[in-house]
Amino acid sequence: MYLDLIKNFKEKIKKQPVFGPFSKSTDPAFIEIMGYSGFDFVILDMEHGPNGLLNMQNLIRAAQLTNIVPIVRVKEDIRSLMANVLDIGAAGIQVPHVKCAGDVKEIINMARFSPLGMRGMCRFVRSADYSSIDGKDYFKYANEALIIIQIEGREGVENLDSIIDQGGFDILFVGPYDLSQSLGVAGQVEHPLVEKTIKDIVKKCKEKNIVVGNFNDNVSIAKKWIDIGIKYISYSVDTGIFSEACKSIVSSLK
């Protein structure tokens, strides 16, 4: 199932946009609901959320059970978590605040087994069915896990060409909120400067056949970015979606 989820996702995103929320929930039931609702992926957030490795594996199990691709966003300053979350079955990692080609090289080195990287080798882990899978096969297919890098600051934008040339990642994700802050218009994700910067990133990536993603919490804006060429659409956050639904119910009953 682990490898099939990844392969199917990679094939789908070649043909059409894919959609999924960020999740800060600690309850696997929420992840199952997202899967049953038809989302393509979920970004299990360790950067801005309470989850740790111990309960993360149950969230990943819930995702796999309902055929939603579990991506884990790790913390910028603890990139060693990349191998940890891949060991417990994450279909991919999403790494924030990538600033240069050297960052990409480090990520690949820590997330890929030889000959692509130097990730610590162990097959007695959940992603290898606790050693039920032959080591030779596991170390090969585990290198198919998704690597998603986040460009969300002025330095990353300035180094975009060398980051693209470095390659080795599957998706380049633009974080609009942190990007707006670095451009001096904090929180104004629809500011012309922010939009132009993202459009320039999309254009350059299109020329190199690199999939681009971004975050949206407005359906009409998300559709606009799809038309521009963004294919990995992260739509809102589970806590925000639940909050809005609750407010809507309360408002309609008053």
Shape: globular
Count of strand segments: 8
Q: Quick one: biggest sheet?
A: 8 strands, parallel, barrel
Rg, nearest Å: 18 Å
Write down the overall mean pLDDT: 95
Tell me the name of the CATH class.
Alpha Beta
Separation, N- and C-terminal Cα atoms: 46 Å
Number of helices: 12
What is this structure, in a nutshell?
The protein has helices spanning 2-15, 28-37, 53-65, 81-87, 101-111, 135-141, 154-158, 160-166, 176-182, 192-207, 219-228, 238-253, and strands at 18-23, 41-45, 69-73, 92-95, 146-151, 171-174, 211-216, 232-237. The chain is an alpha/beta fold.
Structure description:
The chain has 254 residues and is of the alpha/beta class. It has one domain (2-253): TIM Barrel (Alpha-Beta Barrel), CATH 3.20.20.60. The chain has 12 helices and 8 strands. It has an 8-stranded parallel barrel, surrounded by 8 helices. α4 links the parallel β3 and β4. The longest helix is centred in the last third of the chain and has 16 residues, at 192-207. It is globular, with a radius of gyration of 18 Å.
Topology of this protein?
Blueprint: H1 2-15, E1 18-23, H2 28-37, E2 41-45, H3 53-65, E3 69-73, H4 81-87, E4 92-95, H5 101-111, H6 135-141, E5 146-151, H7 154-158, H8 160-166, E6 171-174, H9 176-182, H10 192-207, E7 211-216, H11 219-228, E8 232-237, H12 238-253
Helix pairs in contact: 2-3, 5-8
